[in-house]
């Protein structure tokens, strides 16, 4: 049996909102370590990997490994019925055909309960290989989101160039070109606003802004984002949620 209680429903709402435009149907893999998800988008360009650790729930119980096949559009509709401050409890049997969601609001003593039918999804577990990256950039997630959004008005792709001097985002399109350069700096009062660059060699790679803008939907989960780059390997974009 699975029973996982989140103090704020907004956590799961933000997670689902961040990935629902990339992945439609996916398995939530539940075990004693928490709830995880790994899935490719339909074009097999992007891999989404999410992990909600068991420590983020109170309480958390999972008696055996369970795969919950869920349509994220359906889950989004149900989660919209919850207020951000509601307590959210997820429940499922050992061999479930549905996922039970309970929303509790202490202010008006309201309890709402919903069931979502589960799907049988045959999904390959790909995982993210351990890679030594040539460049790792840690920066404010809101800044990364703004840069991607602004440059998408000019072009469909962005070149990311990391050197000792800083990281440069640049693009060229039909109406013109644009670039944003961030230099390494340390904000002692607000560490999440710092920009840090770890570099073993300069890297310059080009990526689709459509996908990066989708990735930026996870900005609400963390004030900081880490970009890891190396030649001839996919870009790794990491958000560590604060739960």
Automatic annotation (TrEMBL):
CDD domains, per database record: PCNA
Domain Proliferating cell nuclear antigen PCNA N-terminal: 1-124
Proliferating cell nuclear antigen PCNA C-terminal domain segment(s): 127-239
Domain of life of the source: Eukaryota
Gene3D superfamilies reported for this sequence: DNA Polymerase III, subunit A, domain 2
Pfam families to which the protein is assigned, alphabetical: PCNA_C, PCNA_N
Main location: nucleus
Subcellular location: Nucleus
Cleaved signal peptide residues: none
UniProt keyword terms in alphabetical order: DNA replication, DNA-binding, Nucleus
UniProt record similarity statement: Belongs to the PCNA family.
Summary of the function given for this chain in its UniProt record: This protein is an auxiliary protein of DNA polymerase delta and is involved in the control of eukaryotic DNA replication by increasing the polymerase's processivity during elongation of the leading strand.
Name assigned to this protein: DNA sliding clamp PCNA
């Amino acid at each position: 049996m699975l029973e996982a209680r989140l103090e704020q429903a907004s956590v799961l709402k933000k997670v689902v909102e961040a990935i629902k435009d990339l992945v439609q149907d996916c398995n939530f893999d539940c075990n004693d370590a928490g709830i995880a998800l790994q899935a490719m988008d339909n074009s097999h360009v992007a891999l989404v990997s999410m992990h909600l650790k068991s420590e983020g729930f109170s309480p958390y119980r999972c008696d055996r490994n369970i795969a919950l096949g869920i349509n994220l559009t359906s889950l989004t509709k149900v989660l919209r019925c919850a207020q951000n401050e509601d307590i959210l409890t997820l429940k499922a049997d050992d061999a479930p055909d549905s996922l039970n969601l309970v929303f509790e609001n202490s202010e008006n003593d309201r309890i709402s309960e919903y069931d979502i039918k589960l799907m049988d999804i045959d999904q390959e577990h790909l995982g993210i290989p351990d890679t030594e990256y040539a460049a790792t950039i840690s920066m404010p997630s809101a800044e990364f989101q703004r840069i991607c959004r602004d440059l998408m008005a000019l072009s469909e792709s962005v070149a990311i160039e990391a050197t000792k001097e800083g990281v440069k985002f640049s693009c060229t399109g039909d109406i013109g070109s644009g670039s944003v350069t961030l230099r390494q700096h340390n904000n002692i009062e607000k560490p999440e606003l710092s920009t840090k660059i770890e570099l073993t060699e300069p890297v310059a790679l080009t990526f689709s802004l459509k996908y990066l803008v989708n990735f930026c939907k996870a900005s609400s989960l963390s004030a900081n984002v880490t970009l890891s780059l190396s030649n001839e390997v996919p870009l790794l974009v990491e958000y560590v949620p604060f739960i």
